[in-house]
Amino acid sequence: MSTHVFNVNGRRVSVECDDSVRLLWVLRDLLGIHGPKYGCGLNVCKACTSHINGTAFNPCSVPVSDIKESDEITTIEGLAASVGKDLHPMQEAWLEGDVAQCGYCQPGQIMAAAALVKEKGADISDDDLDQIRNICRCGTYHRIREAIKAGAAKM
Ligand code: FES
Ligand code: FES
Known about the structure:
The protein folds into two domains: 2-75, Beta-grasp domain (Ubiquitin-like (UB roll), Roll); 80-154, DNA polymerase, domain 1 (Orthogonal Bundle). It has helices at 23-30, 76-82, 89-96, 106-120, 126-129, 141-154; strands at 2-8, 11-17, 50-52, 55-57, 72-74. The protein is α+β, with helices and mostly antiparallel strands. The protein is built from six helices and five strands; from the N terminus they run E-E-H-E-E-E-H-H-H-H-H. It binds FE2/S2 (inorganic) cluster (2 copies). The site of one FE2/S2 (inorganic) cluster (FES) has 11 residues, from loops.
């Protein structure tokens, strides 16, 4: 067991666990942060998508020992606060577009979308949107793409 210290959603956290434990289980089981979802655990489904230092990543595939003390992890729970609002513009667009069906994939979809628009800018193209590989078993892809464009215009 080792002590791991880093930042999550603006809060300094310290956890005791083996170095090999993947960050997704640290977030969910040790820190009680359940927004990032478990789908595959293999960096395929993208249901766990969160941000590390503002960039999208998949914590199911990152051992906690790879996280540095200075790293800032943001999950869906901290996305709005990262822009100083009650809701991030992408969350507003999601609600306005009534995007979610079962909802399971949606935190990861929103986190992927927010990071992509931050990287590419508001004038996001269909080719840019093709970079989002998050799986939605309910098939909400059309509404997701429309919401990303709407959210991008407000970011
Ligand atoms: S649970 Fe992380 S990519 Fe599937
Ligand atoms: S809304 Fe159900 S998996 Fe995407």
